[in-house]
């Protein structure tokens, strides 16, 4: 399908070149074919969208979440981590079924699309039904399954490995390339060195990246040092995990040596500010990571600790909190945050040609309403995206050239049915 | 007018008794007449609202803002305080007129109502037109004017004093008691001891409270100590400012002695987390203030440093940030934050019988939609308000028994005209 968006503010996703003024955007099938003042000759649009009231920007990339956990939203707040996890989350997770995971994931996907996310990295159980939900929705995603989370571990290492390979073979690059798979190595506190190494070997064999929780709490780091003499990052280095591309959620409580290891091994750090604050995990050294050239993306984490999956919350918080902590109001400006939430995430998730609103790139983009009270007057489009917009201001979502939402109405998801089924599923947890 | 809201979740605004289940709410004129399972005998409603999908809670009280500054939204971000203030904000403020202030304030009021605020404390120039905007909108407000900000100071102290008194006499308790006035003593860096004392004397004479910026930056505190040997709080104590009720915005960089002074003098601290983070002012010791029994309210500050006037942002940030800083996830739970954003603010602003959704209290309340994706499933209404709701989820706003917004449509404000005029006014700054 060819789509023409006329006279729209263009935010690129490239921090060094963030705003391209008011232009027309021509989308040809799954590619951004043209951005400029004219309309390309011979370009016959099937759809024309008036862009006058909108900012166009790359679709947001939620680089670390557990989409299904929206079912546990607002169920366990203001609690210590132990109480949250052992008294609340884990008992609920004992009750999950494929059907519950599918319905919860659909609710999470719907909330993400409605708040402008077009691509996400997911880690949970029952990834095959997660994949089915993603395919139904038309979104782009990278789905992580590991030797321990495929629910086949009790049948032995080789069986679990074959299961993960089957999942990879079925879904990696599936659905017109909108799906990718990666290997989950949950964390150093759940994976011993042998398990870390086994997941790393599997990732190498499949040419996959690894998705891991790393340095989330001070306790995790202290225990790791106590047990092994190494920080979790150094444990990963030793076990060969960092030989493949790694997407590491959280990365709080890192020392300077850890930062050098992250940088030298091209590890992506995923900043999840709402969840890190809410669980009192701490605050990541994001300005230091950016200064040292580490690729930093942004994620919502699961809604059990957020309690939304709205990347606009995370963008605003990313720009605000590090100014407050460093007492420097110039750190992590709006353009930098936008790049973190788009291009840096796309790069981390292994999608090429994604995360930039530029000619030749994949047509994942969103239109953000500037006619709402909170965006008037529109003095600066990049500031408006980060500091005064909310997920609710997203009007239109396009993924791979297909419209997933327009005028806040879903085209691929039955919202009423999704809500009904998710509510019912949540009562079974 | 009598309004009946049927079968609605009731959040009270009292942290120790936050959730009252699903009930009917009967509003008689400006008072909450009944909350319970029944419908009072002889109560004949003019309007019946189905509450099934809603959480009812007290209208939010924005306890420190400069409403007009929405016109400067997104115009000066990621800058040092000096650059922000001297190169951007002050030059714009040289161009303000009564007309610009009125139109900017109307935009700010519209944004506040649309995000659930029913009452605010304002500090700016040209307060008479601010008062007119508030009256037109139907909102409740406390408006601050001081000897320096009434624009009559150049004519001498007595002239300015008479001007402030006239303003007080005209607007205090006006508009069915929905308006109150207070005395602005801007800050210790703009007011010397004589000016602080003159404002304090005027407040005493008028039986008013004082609204002040206090301990916003470390620089302010350091300079105060360098010049006078006293922290700004101690300067206020010495100048008699604390002899009247004081509403102090920010109160960052306080030592333990300052905290004792705030407590002993019943000073309200207004926490403005977005603005404090964005300007890199620092992070207030809110858990310590609450522990020592200080009344802490919440405000948005102006949109030039926020960049919204949406109290849902500030509630979420208040609950999140102090967990992250203290590394204790149990501090400032959802119920506490809700009380800060409602009852504590109402008390600070001098409105009696306000800020609680209980029988006999003033009928300022809002209905928050729970049928939106980000509030499904509704596991805990108080958590939903603080952690997963956004200003855009406010469906209905009632102030003093009058409906100001229903189904997100204004009843007292012409939204299109407000936006049109505000956009035009912003180009004149």
Share of helix among residues of chain A? 25-40%
Q: How many domain regions of chain A? A: 2
CATH topology of the largest domain in chain A: TIM Barrel
Determine the number of helices of chain A (DSSP H or I, runs of at least 4 residues): 16
How many angstroms separate the termini of chain A? 42 Å
Runs of chain A with pLDDT <50, length 5+? none
DSSP, total strands of chain A: 17
Indicate the CATH class of the largest domain in chain A. Alpha Beta
For CATH, the homologous superfamily of the largest domain in chain A is named as: Metal-dependent hydrolases
Report the sheet-strand fraction of chain A.
15-25%
Oligomer: homodimer
Q: Structural class, from secondary structure content of chain A?
A: alpha/beta
Assign the CATH architecture of the largest domain in chain A.
Answer: Alpha-Beta Barrel
Radius of gyration of chain A: 21 Å
Chain pair with largest interface: A-B, 71 and 71 residues
Q: What is the mean pLDDT of chain A? A: 97
What is the makeup of the main sheet of chain A?
A: 9 strands, mixed
3D architecture notes:
Two copies of one chain form a homodimer. The relative contact order of chain A is 0.17. The first copy, chain A, is globular. Chain A has two domains: 2-58 and 356-410, Urease, subunit C, domain 1, CATH 2.30.40; 60-348, Metal-dependent hydrolases (TIM Barrel, Alpha-Beta Barrel). In chain A, helix 2 runs parallel beside helix 3 (127-137), helix 2 crosses helix 16 (415-426) and helix 12 packs across helix 15 (381-388). In chain A, strand 2 (19-28) and strand 3 form a beta hairpin. With 429 residues, the first copy, chain A, is of the alpha/beta class. In chain A, the strands form two sheets. In chain A, strands 1, 2, 3, 4, 5, 14, 15, 16 and 17 form a nine-stranded mixed beta sheet that branches. Chain A has 16 helices and 17 strands. The termini of chain A are far apart. Chains A and B meet through helix 2, helix 10, helix 12, helix 15 and helix 16 of A and helix 2, helix 9, helix 11, helix 13 and helix 14 of B.
């Amino acid at each position: 399908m060819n789509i023409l968006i006329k006279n729209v503010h263009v935010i690129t996703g490239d921090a060094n070149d963030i705003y391209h003024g008011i232009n027309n955007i021509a989308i040809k099938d799954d590619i951004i074919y043209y951005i400029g003042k004219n309309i390309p000759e011979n370009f016959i649009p099937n759809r024309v969208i008036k862009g006058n009231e909108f900012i166009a920007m790359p679709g947001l990339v939620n680089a670390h979440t557990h989409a299904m956990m929206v079912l546990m939203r607002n169920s366990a707040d203001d609690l210590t981590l132990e109480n949250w996890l052992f008294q609340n989350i884990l008992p609920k997770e004992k009750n999950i079924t494929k059907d519950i995971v599918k319905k919860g994931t659909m609710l999470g996907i719907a909330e993400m699309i409605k708040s402008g996310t077009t691509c996400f990295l997911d880690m949970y159980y029952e990834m095959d039904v997660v994949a089915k939900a993603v395919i139904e929705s038309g979104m782009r995603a990278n789905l992580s399954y590991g030797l321990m989370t495929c629910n086949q571990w009790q049948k032995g290492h080789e069986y679990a490995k074959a299961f993960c390979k089957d999942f990879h073979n079925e879904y990696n690059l599936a659905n017109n390339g909108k799906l990718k798979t990666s290997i989950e190595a949950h964390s150093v506190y759940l994976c011993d060195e042998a398990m870390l190494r086994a997941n790393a070997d599997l990732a190498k064999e499949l040419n996959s990246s690894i998705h891991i929780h790393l340095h989330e709490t001070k306790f995790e780091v202290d225990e790791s040092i106590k047990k092994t003499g190494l920080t979790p990052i150094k444990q990963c280095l030793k076990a060969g995990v960092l030989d493949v591309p790694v997407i590491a959620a959280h990365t709080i409580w890192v020392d300077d040596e850890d930062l050098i290891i992250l940088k030298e091994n091209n590890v992506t750090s995923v900043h999840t500010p709402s969840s890190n604050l809410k669980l009192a995990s701490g605050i990541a050294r994001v300005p230091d990571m950016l200064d040292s050239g580490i690729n930093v993306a942004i994620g919502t984490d699961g809604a059990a600790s957020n309690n939304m999956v709205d990347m606009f919350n995370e963008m605003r918080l990313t720009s605000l909190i590090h100014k407050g902590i460093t007492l420097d109001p110039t750190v992590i400006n709006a353009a930098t945050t936008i790049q973190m939430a788009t291009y840096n995430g796309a790069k981390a998730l292994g999608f090429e040609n994604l995360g930039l609103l530029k000619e030749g790139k994949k047509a994942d983009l969103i239109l953000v309403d500037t006619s709402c009270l909170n965006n008037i007057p529109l003095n600066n489009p990049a500031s408006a995206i980060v500091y005064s917009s909310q997920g609710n201001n997203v009007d239109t979502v396009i993924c791979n050239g297909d419209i997933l939402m327009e005028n806040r109405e879903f085209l691929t998801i039955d919202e009423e049915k999704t809500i009904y089924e998710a509510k019912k599923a949540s009562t079974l947890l």
